[in-house]
UniProtKB/TrEMBL annotation:
Biological processes annotated in GO: proteolysis
Species the sequence originates in: Enhygromyxa salina
Residues that coordinate or bind substrate: R215, V216, G217, D218, T238, G239, V240, G241
Protein name stated in the entry: Isoaspartyl peptidase
Site positions for Cleavage: D186, T187
Active site: T187 (nucleophile)
């Protein structure tokens, strides 16, 4: 059988039930390879994040930008969870340092905010939001992004906020050549649709294990790693960013879906094509403007969870058969 591009049978049933619904939060914990000892934690973490996002969505009701608050709540939970490669638990660069990226976009006005290659930042999602709401720019990088965050009082900085035994061990193994560095599970993200039908997409990542300092992947790049539009829907990418960037992955997925292919089929097609051409781990989650939900990956694993009003939360770690 070809590498998996679809959710498990139970997962696809859950996705189908979510079609044409309002008030939902869809979360992923990264496409790639999850270590066995972290697999249960990945499922629990994505389910917890989806629940927190939905709780925030329900709390805010019909408030404007409820979808923004929901994705921040969900992704903040993932960033604080050491099971994932974002915030606490992020992987290290080739110099043993931490550099993180994040990007956010809302559908109602296509406003965006992103940060890239920011050192020792625990909650990149909040700084990306600040760029969107409190600056005249769409993307800030490196020291400039840090200075902006400090001036706004946004973001927690410090190596101790990101470092974990897991990150140190994997850095040492990669440096000594004991473990492969390709297709490690990376990136976290959430898409929310609120009761107004507005969408927001937010992704956050520690990047590629043992990456060159200054390397930036797809996560903070508009159209590649994230996109939200009132006429198209919202999407997030995960996996090897270099493979996704060349396809402008999220915009391409939504463009295909809007042409009549559908969100799920578009996600599956794009994953297959990228993996066929590059061999890279890749995944996407997406929500159409009508609430249709899609998820696909070509990778050993991808954790995900879906929460919507009036229904039980569903989630799993889908596995390449």
């Amino acid at each position: 059988m070809n590498r998996s591009t679809k959710a498990s049978a139970s997962g696809r049933e859950a996705l189908a039930r979510a079609e044409n619904s309002r008030g939902l939060v869809l979360v992923h914990g990264g496409a790639g390879t999850n270590a066995f000892e972290l697999q249960e934690a990945a499922v629990a973490g994505t389910r917890r994040a989806a629940a927190l996002g939905l709780a925030r969505l329900v709390e805010l009701g019909d408030s404007e930008d409820a979808c923004v608050e929901a994705v921040i709540a969900a992704v903040r939970s993932l960033e604080d969870d050491p099971a994932f490669n974002a915030g606490r638990g992020a992987c290290m660069t080739a110099l043993g340092e931490f550099e993180v990226d994040a990007g956010i976009m809302r559908s109602r006005d296509r406003q965006t905010g992103a940060v890239a290659s920011v050192r020792e930042l625990a909650n990149a999602c909040e700084l990306a939001r600040a760029v969107m709401e409190r600056s005249d720019h769409a993307l800030l990088v490196g020291d400039g992004a840090q200075r902006f965050g400090e001036a706004c009082g946004v973001g927690r900085f410090g190596r101790e906020l990101l470092w974990t035994d897991k990150a140190q061990q994997r850095f040492e193994q990669a440096r000594s050549g004991q473990t492969p560095i390709d297709n490690r599970a990376d990136t976290v993200g959430a898409i929310a649709m609120d009761r107004r039908g507005h969408l927001c997409a937010l992704g956050s990542t520690g990047g590629v294990l043992f990456k060159l300092p200054g390397r930036v992947g797809d996560t903070p790049l508009i159209g590649a790693g994230f996109y939200a539009d009132a006429t198209l829907g919202a999407a997030l990418g995960t996996g090897v960013g270099e493979a996704i960037m060349g396809r402008v992955g999220c915009y391409e997925l939504l463009r295909r879906a809007a042409s009549g292919v559908g969100v799920q089929a578009a996600a599956e097609q794009l994953c297959q094509e990228i993996h066929r051409d590059t061999g890279a781990a890749v995944g996407f989650i997406a929500v159409g403007r009508d609430g249709t939900v899609g998820m696909a990956h070509c990778s050993a694993h991808m954790s995900w969870a879906l929460a919507r009003e009036g229904h039980e939360i569903t989630g799993a770690l889908t596995v390449d058969p």
